[in-house]
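Q: A reviewer asked whether we had any structural model of the full assembly, not just the individual parts. We don't, so I'm hoping you can provide one. Inputs are below.
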Amino acid sequence: MDSVFDHAIRLGDDALILGQRLSEWCGHAPMLEVDLALANIALDLTGQATLFLALAAEEEGRGRDADALAFRRDVLDFRNCLIVEQPNGDFAQTIARQFLFSNWQELLLAEIAEAPAPALAAIAAKAVKEVRYHVRYASEWVVRLGDGTQESRGRMSDGLDWMWRFVEELFDAVDGAASLRPAWEARIAATLRAAGLERPRPMRPILGGRKGHHSEHLGHLLCEMQFLQRTYPGATW
Amino acid sequence: MVKTAIRADEVFAILQQVHDPEIPVLSVVDLGIVREVRDDAVAITPTYSGCPATLVIEQAIRQALDAAGLQKMRIETVLFPPWTTDWITAEGHRKLEAYGIAPPQPSGAVLCPRCGSAQARLVSEFGSTPCKALYRCGACGEPFDRFKCH
Ligand SMILES: [Zn+2]
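A: Here is a predicted structure for the entire assembly that you could use as a starting point for your response.
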């Protein structure tokens, strides 16, 4: 049975790492509105991460706080799923990641918001309202790109193909949320149909994030994110 | 001077003078984030998980309470139930509109705060802050922010 700490650290790490990834788009997005949207989604996720990691730190009771967990923890101790640490790629690949992840995150948070752990439920009830915007945003772009030009369609399709191998982990029988799969599949299928896109063919899944077995990408991400607190521990501004 | 007893309505009057740093026309009371005032504590609920104004607001409330001699009054953050735009007061709605931000309408109606036209088009659900979406008026052509229904 997983503890509140286990749940909080996973939810917090998912949000933190994806928030950090998305913030890499800041100032680089294809247009201003997209730049604002991705930065806003990143901000929502970073806020959720702060709340979940603060709860994890409190549960742990070893004197660490959310910042210590975010900025002074080593890569092997991160418990995020692998999809959130994947590089942004092009805009379509970023949207593919967001589409697959946010749909899953919304279903998961909605379930946690109804669950009997009050501290987790309170954060989830707040976060799920924010994630609905992320789902809508990503889904609209999947349709726009999929139903757009040959170029945009090809890129959207490639983006989904690339991210699809990380889907299995979200529903893994051991550390995943297997019961959410039918609802998730129905959402994904409806949007892909509207976009005129094929469901990616099954591929060998890559697992391990929940156990701390990460892709090389996470280490690079943490190098950048943790640089300041590693170099000047406890620095404030 | 440290006060020992104060009525809730007096505390609300103090908090009515504390403004949201991003939408300074609104007080924290107008915004509906002050959930409860007790003898020893003020309970506030943040708007968005990642709202950068949250910390600034808490500091501003602290300063206002201290200045009123209420150093012993604590500030509690309450996450549940989550904040909703339904908690923005009628006064808050009026102030937003006068400031040029379309207030959240549960009906979904979006009226241009400049000319009142209903011919507004959504430009982006993500605007200049987490709580606002970006619209453009079809009549006068001006872009404007709308407080998201949340
Ligand atoms: Zn107008």
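A: Points you may want to mention in the reply: Residues 100-147 of chain B form one domain. The beta strands of chain B are 34-37, 41-44, 74-77, 101-102, 120-124, 132-137, 143-147.
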